[in-house]
Amino acid sequence: MKHLTSMIEISVGGILILSGLVLLLIIFRRPLIEKVWKYRKEIIRHNLSTSFPELGPKDINNLIKEYYKHMCDLVVEPFFLLSKKRAEKMQFNNTEILDDLLQKKKDIVLFSSHYGNWENMAALPLFTGYEVVAAYTPVKNQFINNLLGKLRKRYNVTIVPKNDFYKVALRNKNSDRPKLYIMIGDQSPSKDSIKNGIPFLNHNTPVQIGPVRLSQKLDCPIVYLDVNKTKRYQYEYSFKLIEEEVKEYNEMELIKKCYIELENTIRRSPGIWLWSHKRWKYEHLLKAS
Length: 289
Hints:
This protein is α/β, with parallel strands linked by helices.
């Protein structure tokens, strides 16, 4: 089976099919997803309407259209990472924050989110002296999983399965080379682990506190990653220090600081956050508690 997978990965037919799908998404993008597939349209509409009750139906429909366009771009964009010349032209602002913390030999927990293009973080080692470590969720489809793995590791990001990420980070504490740990912080917790809720986008939102908990365990700063989509396929990334001395705060104080920044980012341009997931499906459990 392993040999068969390798053959499929390099087969001309596989490459042509993949190239054809990418081309379709580039040319037809939104109509394919919105009109033909209608991917999770009611979930998207519900999430947007409850997050922005001040917006009318026309505004919500415009955001849905923007979201579908962006989602199609996301399918195409990881392949741009194959070009080092293109990756080197990505725009990262406020990198002096990372430089200063690296001089102090401090690890960093980077609070990122499903906003804009988070796969572009694979190019981060080109812009910092940190060893960059990222958590990932393995994909069931082995071909896609291997392809994404190669793209994510192209510029020497160390990728760790999410179930092992925490213990790997703790094991690396005080290592010779400081680490920058990328953590997607806006994921919904599992039903059994819901304990904490904060105000976010007009909801009482269940949150995972993993990023701030890890920063306190490592006694390292937590940095927020702001994202701005400047035009199609192009993004501007900016680093913002949330707190350097994290042990002076409790977990909820720190996670609220992160989510305030995330809400500001989303409200600036709402259409490129991941609206197609049931982000608030367990909100009622917080209200009942």
